[in-house]
């Protein structure tokens, strides 16, 4: 059954579907970066609200600024912007079609359609999932990179920007000049202080071409910090086949686990949906939640995925059934990461770590280590190195963290222990491969990548531990290193 508004009533009885009138929805949110995570998370929460009779004036308009987003737009519009969500759990499978998204802006050079849509008065939230590395930050300093070629282009061509943030600045200029007022910028990416980062990027870019507009944005727009959490694999042939087995012809179905969490600062300058009615936590202490999640889920995710890529283990669940990798991540989480995390009302650090281990072990979620290991040049500075720096400052244990960095260096050489090729998926691939191969004979060459490590190469306790692990990995294999750490 081809998914569309016309076929909703004919879907299999086991499939939950919208009970609200989609024709009566009006837009309130424009979301840039409409991938699987957004549709399984923010769009799902909004759909749940709509099922309860709320937020029918907050429907989502999708958007993107990359050429690949044009293909996503084509697929979504062909099925009336509906999404099939397939929840996979050892206890069973649940299927739901969500309808909170109603349109998708044309993807075009100069982003005129995107700018015009964001300038509409009905759009009160502009949200983003553009990946951790998509905010134009200096990797080491985490400050706005005003020298990036994309940023320089948008500063020189503010009416025809190529970035999402340039489009936001252009739309906000129109809103100010036309008296429409500001919107809330809401990052839904895995970044510490993601709202602060989004503010920094938007205001920083505006300041390069129009300081008065930058001041207006800074004073009038809000950028709430948030923590987002749900494991959502990429969609491939298996997921497409699974949807068809259920009886749905969906070109872009989404599989996900049965756990979601969303914690947000309640700071919305133009109003918001009542998300608290569907389980979203509003808190003034988002930092504690995001620190727990980024350090115990995201850092551990990267740690096991990179070691797994070297060993040829394809999935995260496969990592957890691999004795050495699972023992490694458990010790790393409990002995080196949990001591840097504070409790939140719902979880103590060790309890949360155990929850993460169970979630990683879900065999129904086919989350590939290749996906998780991608973009390490953003993930390590964002997720792992802050833990390392804190442990160094307090005298805490760092052996496992040093091993994580050595595993990244080993993976970045681009070849597994069985001789097969590793496809390094990273915007800084060339630099990583060069440094990784230099580090085969001189391990500290890897740490000299100051764009990621800053001055950590001069921290002898870390540099010595890293050199020892990487030398052992190249001499005897990563399995020997994992075994040494866990015994």
Keyword list:
487 residues, alpha/beta, Rossmann fold, N-(1-d-carboxylethyl)-l-norvaline Dehydrogenase, domain 2, five-stranded parallel sheet, three-stranded mixed sheet, 21 helices, globular
Question: What's the quick description here?
Answer:
This protein is an alpha/beta fold and 487 residues long.
Detailed description of the structure:
The chain is α/β, with parallel strands linked by helices. It folds into 2 domains: 5-284, Rossmann fold (3-Layer(aba) Sandwich), CATH 3.40.50.720; 287-486, N-(1-d-carboxylethyl)-l-norvaline Dehydrogenase, domain 2 (Orthogonal Bundle). Helix content is 48%, strand content 10%. The protein is built from 21 helices and 11 strands. It has a 5-stranded parallel sheet, with helices on both faces. It has a 3-stranded mixed sheet with strand order 4-3-9. Helix 6 crosses helix 8 (211-220), helix 7 packs antiparallel against helix 8 (211-220) and helix 10 (286-311) packs across helix 13 (349-360). The N and C termini lie far apart (54 Å).
Spatially, the strands of the biggest sheet line up as 5-2-1-6-7
CATH architecture of the largest domain: 3-Layer(aba) Sandwich
How far apart are the termini?
54 Å
Overall pLDDT: 97
Judged by helices, strands and strand pairing, the structural class is alpha/beta
Helix content: 40-55%
CATH class of the largest domain: Alpha Beta
Which blocks of ≥5 consecutive residues have pLDDT under 50?
none
Sketch the major β-sheet.
5 strands, parallel
CATH topology-level name of the largest domain: Rossmann fold
Tell me the radius of gyration: 23 Å
The total domain count is 2
Which superfamily, in CATH terms, is the homologous superfamily of the largest domain?
NAD(P)-binding Rossmann-like Domain
Q: Strand tally, please?
A: 11
Shape: globular
Number of helices: 21
InterPro entries: 6-PGluconate_DH-like_C_sf (IPR008927), 6PGD_dom2 (IPR013328), Mannitol_DH (IPR000669), Mannitol_DH/Oxidoreductase (IPR050988), Mannitol_DH_C (IPR013118), Mannitol_DH_N (IPR013131), NAD(P)-bd_dom_sf (IPR036291)
Domain Mannitol dehydrogenase N-terminal: 28-277
Organism: Albidovulum litorale
Domain Mannitol dehydrogenase C-terminal: 285-467
């Amino acid at each position: 059954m081809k998914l569309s508004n016309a076929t909703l009533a004919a879907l299999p009885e086991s499939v939950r579907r919208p009970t609200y009138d989609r024709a009566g929805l009006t837009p309130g949110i424009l979301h840039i970066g409409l991938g699987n995570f957004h549709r399984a998370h923010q769009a799902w929460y909004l759909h749940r609200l709509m099922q309860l009779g709320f937020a029918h004036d907050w429907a989502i308009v999708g958007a993107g600024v990359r050429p690949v987003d044009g293909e996503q737009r084509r697929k979504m519009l062909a099925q009336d912007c509906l999404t099939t969500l397939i929840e996979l759990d050892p206890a069973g499978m649940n299927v739901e079609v969500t309808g909170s998204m109603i349109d998708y802006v044309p993807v075009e050079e100069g982003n005129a359609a995107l700018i015009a849509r964001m300038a509409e008065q009905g759009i009160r939230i502009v949200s983003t999932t553009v990946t951790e590395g998509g905010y134009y930050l200096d990797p080491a300093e985490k400050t706005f990179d005003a020298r990036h070629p994309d940023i320089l282009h948008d500063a020189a061509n503010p009416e025809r920007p190529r970035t999402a943030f340039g489009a936001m600045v252009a739309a906000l200029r129109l809103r100010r000049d036309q008296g429409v007022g500001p919107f809330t910028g809401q990052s839904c990416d895995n970044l510490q202080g993601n709202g602060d980062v989004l503010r920094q990027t938007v205001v920083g870019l505006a300041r390069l071409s129009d300081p008065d507009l930058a001041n207006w944005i800074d004073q009038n727009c809000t950028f709430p910090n948030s923590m987002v959490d749900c494991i959502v694999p990429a969609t491939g042939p298996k997921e497409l086949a699974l949807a068809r087995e259920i009886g749905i012809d969906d070109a872009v179905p989404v599989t996900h686990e049965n756990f979601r969490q969303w914690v947000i600062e309640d700071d919305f300058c133009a109003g918001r949906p009542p998300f608290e009615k569907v389980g979203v936590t509003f808190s003034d202490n988002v930092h504690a939640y995001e620190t727990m999640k980024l350090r115990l889920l995201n850092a551990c995710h990267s740690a096991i995925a990179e070691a797994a890529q070297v060993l040829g283990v394809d999935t995260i669940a496969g990592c957890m059934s691999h004795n050495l990798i699972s023992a490694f991540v458990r010790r790393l989480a409990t002995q080196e990461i949990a001591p840097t995390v504070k409790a939140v009302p719902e979880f103590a650090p060790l309890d949360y770590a155990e929850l993460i281990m169970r979630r990683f072990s879900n065999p129904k979620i086919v989350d590939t280590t290749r996906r998780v290991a991608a973009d390490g040049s953003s993930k390590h500075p964002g997720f792992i190195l802050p833990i390392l720096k804190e442990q160094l400052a307090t005298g805490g244990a760092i052996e496992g963290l040093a091993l994580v960095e050595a595993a990244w260096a080993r993976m970045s050489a681009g070849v597994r222990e069985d001789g097969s090729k590793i496809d390094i998926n990273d915007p800084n691939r060339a630099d990583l491969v060069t440094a990784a191969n230099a580090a085969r004979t001189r391990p500290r060459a890897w740490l000299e990548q100051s764009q990621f490590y800053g001055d950590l190469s001069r921290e002898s306790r870390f540099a010595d531990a890293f050199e020892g692990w990487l030398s052992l990995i190249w001499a005897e294999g990563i399995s020997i290193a994992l075994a040494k750490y866990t015994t």
